[in-house]
Amino acid sequence: MSVLAAEGVVAGYGAAEQILKGASVRVEPGEIVTIIGPNGAGKSTLLKTIAGLVAAKEGQIILSGKDVTSADAGGRAKAGIAFVPQERNVFGSLTVAENLEIAGFLDPAGASARAEGLYATYPMLAAKRRALARTLSGGQRQILAMAMGLMSNPSLMLLDEPTAGLSPKAADDLFDAIVALNRDGLPILMVEQHAVEALAVSHRGYVLVSGRNSAEGTGPGLAADPEIRRLFLGG
Ligand SMILES: Nc1ncnc2c1ncn2[C@@H]1O[C@H](COP(=O)(O)OP(=O)(O)OP(=O)(O)O)[C@@H](O)[C@H]1O
Ligand SMILES: [Mg+2]
Fold this sequence. Notes:
Belongs to the ABC transporter superfamily. By secondary structure, this protein is α/β, with parallel strands linked by helices.
């Protein structure tokens, strides 16, 4: 059974023209799946629709066999979706520990044990637990944002451009952290501008153009496709 099957999703903002015009994406157990596509294609809107922050006007969102299309964002979080948005994904004026505490709201009783587990996995967070989140480097902040998502013990992690604004070295380190998380069994659906690097660590990928699926394939297969390279990967 697929972890996620989003089929024929039509969605947008208000009364304006729909941004997603029938987009579909699937995540199987154990996969890293990456969505690439030009600016404004609707990649972030698709993640937000899967997370329940934008309503699907048509189509279905099935999470591990359960139809969550009409569930709100809280319901989707309870159903196992963790969404790490591209921006404002940590509370800068709170400490690392406070950010994790807030992110544990779905299971307050288990939150402190869960935070301790995350400190063991990410020693940087343990070292910085009393630091304000805004003092972290870009890469450290992304690790904190992912750790906040992990506080709810998700069955699927959505990451919107996790390496945006990072140096090449920090982006590499973050991809390593994403791969390590996936090796522990967590399925991941991410949107990335660093398409070559992201597809290289992905089992499968999708190309989204103007709110519709334009291509799909294995990560390495898409990264090697001449047409995809010409259009999206700078030759
Ligand atoms: N909150 C919003 N209200 C109205 N329109 C929006 C909103 N968010 C995004 N849009 C519009 O929806 C379209 C798709 O935006 P979206 O952010 O999903 O694209 P994207 O593929 O993630 O692009 P990028 O690569 O730049 O992140 C754009 O035309 C954008 O202006
Ligand atoms: Mg976006």
